[in-house]
Amino acid sequence: MSELLYDEITVNRIKLLHPNIRNQVKDWYLEINKKLPKGIRIRFTHTYRSLEEHDNLVNQRPKVTNAKGGQSIHNYGLAFDIVIMKQNDKGSWDIDWKVDKYWMQVAEYFKSKGFDWGGEWKSLKDYPHFEFTHGKTWKYYAQLPKIKDNGIEYPKL
To answer: How far apart are CA 92 and CA 101, in angstroms?
Structure first.
């Protein structure tokens, strides 16, 4: 069984995060994977999401968000969602959505780095979600001037 410390899917998704945080997030992603036990890893399922992609989620059932396009921190490249991957006896990786001790280890780790965790929200808990807002809301980021990177517009921080 080979040990996976990172996967290309996540590394490519990290490249879509805001340019001001992507290198640090990649380092933190690698660090938390080293802290998890052998056979347990995280994968980023979503990072940057366009307004159109986000609008499509609003009508999805079961409901996963109340935020319309522009009202999500994903739209500004400052959020990511995760799953936990567990290696099975055949060496393949299974995705586990259950919030367990490993999920909590990841949540505590990213909270210690300044991220807000959707699992602590009062309404419509979003356990896979982490955002790096510095206490600001989407309204703050929406009104900032824009920069372009990788063909994506991000707020100028």
So the answer is: 21
Rounded Cα distance, 94 and 83, in Å: 10
* Enclosing domain of residue 33: 8-149
CATH code of the domain covering residue 40: 3.30.1380.10
Mean pLDDT of the chain: 91
User: Is residue 102 included in any domain, yes or no?
Assistant: yes
Q: Is residue 156 part of a domain?
A: no
Into how many domains does the chain fold? Answer: 1
Question: Letter for the amino acid at 27?
Answer: D
Alpha-helical runs (H) found in the chain:
8-14, 22-35, 51-58, 101-112, 138-142
Is residue 142 a contact partner of residue 70, using CB atoms and an 8 Å limit? yes
What digits encode the pLDDT tens for the residues 73-114? 999 999 999 999 998 888 788 888 889 999 999 999 999 999
